[in-house]
Amino acid sequence: MNTSVSTTARLLGAGLRALFVLTVICGVLYPLAVTGIAQVLFHDKANGSGIKDESGRVVGSSLIGQTYHLPKQAPSDASTGDDPEEAAKPDLRWFQPRPSNGLGSNSVNTQYSLILSGATNRSADNGAVGGHCTKDAEEGTLCAQVIAAKEAVIADNSTTGYHVRPEDVPADAVTSSGSGLDPDISPEYAELQIHRVAEQNKLDVQQVEKLVADHTTGRTLGFMGEPRVNVLALNIALAALTRS
């Protein structure tokens, strides 16, 4: 009996010592080492890839898209049944991102349109009539959303002396990404917005064109992905330009 108790105590002691040692190594030393290496070698990425404005304040992440809307207006008469969500319109002074069709909304930081990531999961021909998207598409279908978005892009970005042609509207201007959180737009969509942004901010078109060119990133390593423009970084530069 004494031998059995002694053996059990010895095994328990060994187990507790192993638990303590592994807890210190795996739960304290390893996380501290990884965190330290990340902070030294990848400081920006380890802290969420935040982007700062001129004052040094972090205004968002380069990895997550934001909305640039005018403040929402409460319905003038609650009895009318107006939806305050419908009153939120794009602030046309700024470059606009891709549409966001995610799964939920963020009530903590309203500058971010989403807190959950996800796509619509609708097929490319959802709502198509005769194999084509037409204005007869059923409301709520992907075709109806794309047609409405395209009409809005044309109306919003057409200015005095510059009219957006339907064939010039790129796909990313009217569709969301798979995650709904894409922070980038194509150079074509950024260029389509140049005249409107210049007019709204009383800037020369050439100034805004240069701004877009300076913030256009090419393919990663020259062959991966597509050229892109980070909307948040572009709008921060635009804000600095309008104040200069």
What would you note in describing this structure?
With 244 residues, this protein is mainly alpha-helical. The protein folds into two domains: 2-43; 53-243, no CATH class. The protein has seven helices and five strands. It has helices spanning 2-41, 43-46, 142-157, 187-192, 194-201, 205-214, 231-243, and strands at 50-52, 58-61, 184-185, 216-217, 228-230. It has a three-stranded antiparallel β-sheet. A two-stranded antiparallel sheet has the order 1-2. β1 and β2 (58-61) form a beta hairpin. α5 packs across α6 (205-214). The longest helix has 40 residues, at 2-41. Residues 77-81 and 103-109 have low confidence and may be disordered.
Give the SSE map.
Elements: H1 2-41, H2 43-46, E1 50-52, E2 58-61, H3 142-157, E3 184-185, H4 187-192, H5 194-201, H6 205-214, E4 216-217, E5 228-230, H7 231-243
Antiparallel strand pairs: 1-2, 3-5, 4-5
Helix pairs in contact: 5-6
Features:
244 residues; mainly alpha
Sum this structure up briefly.
This protein has about 240 residues and is mainly alpha-helical. Helices cover about 40% and strands about 5% of the residues.
Give the overall shape, derived from the CA principal axes: elongated
Kindly state the mean pLDDT as a whole number?
A: 83
How many independent structural domains?
2
Proportion of residues in helical segments: 25-40%
Rounded Rg:
26 Å
Number of helices: 7
Helix and strand pattern: HHEEHEHHHEEH
Category from helices, strands and their pairing: mainly alpha
Order of the strands making up the biggest sheet: 3-5-4
Biggest sheet layout? 3 strands, antiparallel
Task: Catalogue the unreliable spans.
Answer: 77-81, 103-109
Question: How many DSSP E strands?
Answer: 5
The fraction of residues assigned to DSSP E strands is 5-15%
Distance between the termini: 87 Å
